[in-house]
Fold this sequence. Notes:
alpha/beta
Amino acid sequence: MENSTIPTQAQQSMSNPITLASLIDNPIMHRIHSTHAPDGCSRHFHLKPLLRFTENIFQNALSTTTDTPQEEAQAQLNASLEDYDNYDDFLKPYLAQIIKRTSGKLSSVCDQSAQTATIEVFETLSSFNWGTKVVVALAAFSVIYGKFWLVAQLSHTNLLTKSIAILEQLPDTLGEKEPWKPKFKAPTDLIKTIQEVAKCIVEFSELPLQYMNLEGRGMLTATAHIPIAVYWAIYGMAVCTKQTMCLPGMGQENVEATMEDWNQRSLEHKLTQIHDYLKAQLTVCRQHIRERREIETYELIERLLKTPQIDNMKILKALIRPKDEQQLPLFDGSTKKRAKLEVLWKRNVLLLISELEVPDQELTIVEKMYQESRQNPTREESQYEIVWIPVVDGSTQWNEEKDRHFETQKAQMKWYSVFHPSLLETAAIKYIKKAWGLNKKPMLVALDPLGRVVNDNAIHMINIWGPTVAFPFYKSREEGLWKEVSWGLELLAAPIHPLIIDWITEGKYICLFGGEDIEWIWKFSILAKAVGRAAGIKLEMLYVGKSNPREKIWKNNISIAQENLSYVLPDLNVVWFFWARLESMWHSKVQHGETAETDPITQEIMSMLSFDGGNHGWAVFGRGWGEMSQMTKAKGDTILKCLSEYEMWKDEVETKGFVAALNDYLIHQLQTPHHCNRLVLPDTTGRTPDRVPCADCGRPMEKYIRYRCCTD
């Protein structure tokens, strides 16, 4: 049989993928290379449409021996016809002529060896590159194979094809599907493998060369072995053609033996090895291209943000890149429809960047921002858009559960969202994490109408001042706002309860207190009210809980309200916001280079945060506006002792005032050098400083790593 024409050296090499490279110096390959003289005409051919045509022919031909759905074949044919229409008209007759000539060379296999016919095919296709050679040869083979099976299938129902079948001496039962189905399994598998090899070669030919170094990883070995793959693919076509063309004239008794002989051939196995080898190299090349593209895109983002632009479109398109020009990459939460990036043209844009899940508290803040801007859409302070950018870890697989979670989260938002996380460039994600410091907590990156980053995390600024005052979110604006304020009750607590401003205006004394020990809360509240009455002052009290409000704080709120011990915040989200706003103050100060050693406000912020680091209670007493405000504070046991010893300092109240007298007694009578402050600062931006001084004594605090998981 034809197996005798396969060189022994080649057979041994192809059976072992480790020695695949030995075929490069094979005499046959020298002959093949001698025919290779590409003249550039291959660039006019679109190979994938041609491949789809051959797939459609094989599917219809092989439907005699396999169970390919006709609907699928028809759909593929329609797609192929649409692609073929895109071919230049002058190419169609030229392509038909080349396919016809190649079919003739393959058909000559009946009069000579498959190897000789293969070489003649290479000579016919000498002016094409390797990818075009294998695809044109496959098209020629599909015509031969398709015509053969067209006659076989219709020989029982069509007089013309029946006459042709008789003259060509085709077996009478060849048109019947079931008897021949197992007998054609081997040639069918070989044809399918040839197609897969051809697809792989075409994929290599379509790699963007601007990212490829021909001597780089993957490409060097692939370049050397693609000619081998093309040779064996075309050789396989010649063998299949010979088997097909030899069936006419055979008696029924010889056909079965001919088909069984296919099972003895190793050609399909060898081509599978070639395919697997090339596929592995293709994976290496694609990974290299992805890395090069990521570097290129990352550098583009850096360059765009450093270079003056006429609008914000270039930077937005570098971050959010649709797969094609027609794709709408945004989702408008207000209309529930997709939108183009141009809706953000020359707008102030806040990029809400987060992981797939946005915590409810942060979502509530953004929701209030959005509602406020839409209530007065013509105000200058409302001229901004919000876009949710969900950053998904590329190392984790996207699945249906994540998709449902994403869609649910997206549906809750009234503002714009990226339509799907896959539209985010990998390089953009790297830039967001490295340059903008995305860690775990959501962040708001502010872009001005020209696409400049005016604040790499405006969420702290917005938490402190509110969106109306913070607009247009410039860092210089934030720095200016800090210069206009001093530490006092207005800065500390005005936004968290509607009565705070009224109390300050009315000249009342205000006590904020926290912690989760209900027994301490009860003792302190009763004692503080008694001291207030004794001092003859109007004292209002507000319980603010702890930074991670859970069920215990909720129960405390209920108990405090029921026993009329003090005011409480309306819900746990507001409790959370009080502490989140303090943390934002700290982050804002750190971003502007302030420390507790040089800035009094930073020192007060850290002192407040240290109260939350322990499990015991604490209290702040204050009165007045701005620079005229008075404040003092202490931890739970200390403030209880101070209030219980009111008789010791009550005479000072008339001359100094209640807050000053309280403060003097705390400092001069109760303060000791012994203290233990715990400061818990979430690393929300990846920029937490290594050195943090104690708010009480100024010495550097010891740094510990703390992990926390709260699910209750």
